[in-house]
């Protein structure tokens, strides 16, 4: 995961030079495959060579410091990020990963997943955060709402939502009702699957908290977890397998799509 972030950062700097990877390799006396491996996060280069490449491409001091730090962390299993604005679900890494994923599976234990939130619901959730200043709430809420644009047919979505999250009132009754109605509207899209974990299921594999599992056409899957002011990314096979197993167990107790719509509809009718 860190290697991929590092490779993406170097790629942007190379593109800024206007030179091809082949030409840069020639000028540095490298094999072109070395740059290709570096951009793919596969390693195969030393810290000195990374510094040489960044200097040649005229990376700024800030860019060099950031990318060297990523390079040195690339052997770690997980990557912890502390967002500058304290909002984990708005870090550029997550947003970039979501855009490049072809399948996103989300488990939500206490709230409706961010991508599914209507603007009013997102605003109330943002307003309740202890790490977001009141003056920043409108901007952050708008940014969160903008993530709903991801819900298009270019990727597949599977949302597992606990029944408690559906019954948990966020904002006034009208906001709550509209949020549930929005879930019903989205659930009929061919590329979206919403499955409810019923309260009657009791204890289940997802009690430790929500997470994202993102799959990509050319890269290993990535797991994303967030907390109040930081987030974690994992792409090592062992950790990903743990979360894949969790999703398999959630799927075993989740209602199917029609049954899930019926639960949402029954909550709406209860108003």
From TrEMBL:
Short name of one Pfam family = HTH_31
Q: Name the domain of life.
A: Bacteria
Q: Which InterPro entries match?
A: Cro/C1-type_HTH, DUF5753, Lambda_DNA-bd_dom_sf
Q: Which CDD domains match?
A: HTH_XRE
Q: Which residues form the DUF5753 domain?
A: 92-265
This chain's protein is named Helix-turn-helix transcriptional regulator
Look up and give the organism this protein is from.
Lentzea roselyniae
């Amino acid at each position: 995961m860190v290697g991929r972030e590092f490779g993406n950062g170097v790629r942007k700097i190379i593109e800024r030079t206007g030179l091809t990877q082949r030409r840069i390799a020639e000028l540095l006396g490298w094999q072109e495959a070395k740059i290709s491996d570096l951009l793919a996060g596969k390693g195969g280069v030393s810290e000195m060579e990374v510094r040489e490449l960044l200097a040649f491409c005229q990376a700024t001091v800030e860019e060099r410091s950031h990318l060297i730090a990523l390079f040195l962390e690339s052997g770690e299993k997980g990557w912890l990020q502390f967002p500058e604005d304290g909002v984990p679900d708005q870090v550029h890494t997550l947003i970039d990963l979501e855009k490049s994923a072809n399948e996103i599976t989300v488990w939500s234990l206490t709230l409706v997943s961010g991508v599914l939130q209507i603007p009013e619901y997102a605003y109330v959730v943002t307003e309740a955060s202890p790490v977001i200043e009141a003056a920043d709430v409108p901007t952050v809420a708008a940014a969160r709402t903008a993530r709903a644009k991801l819900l298009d047919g270019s990727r597949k979505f599977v949302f597992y939502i606990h029944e408690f999250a559906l019954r948990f009132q966020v904002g006034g009754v009208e906001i709550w009702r509209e949020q549930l109605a929005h879930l019903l509207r989205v659930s009929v899209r061919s590329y979206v699957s919403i499955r409810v974990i019923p309260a009657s299921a009791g204890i289940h594999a997802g009690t430790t908290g929500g997470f994202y599992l993102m799959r990509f056409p050319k890269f290993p899957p990535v797991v994303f977890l967030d907390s109040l002011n930081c987030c974690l990314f994992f792409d090592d096979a062992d950790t990903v397998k743990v979360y894949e197993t969790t999703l398999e167990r959630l799927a075993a107790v989740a209602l199917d799509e029609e049954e899930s719509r019926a639960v949402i509809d029954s909550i709406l009718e209860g108003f």
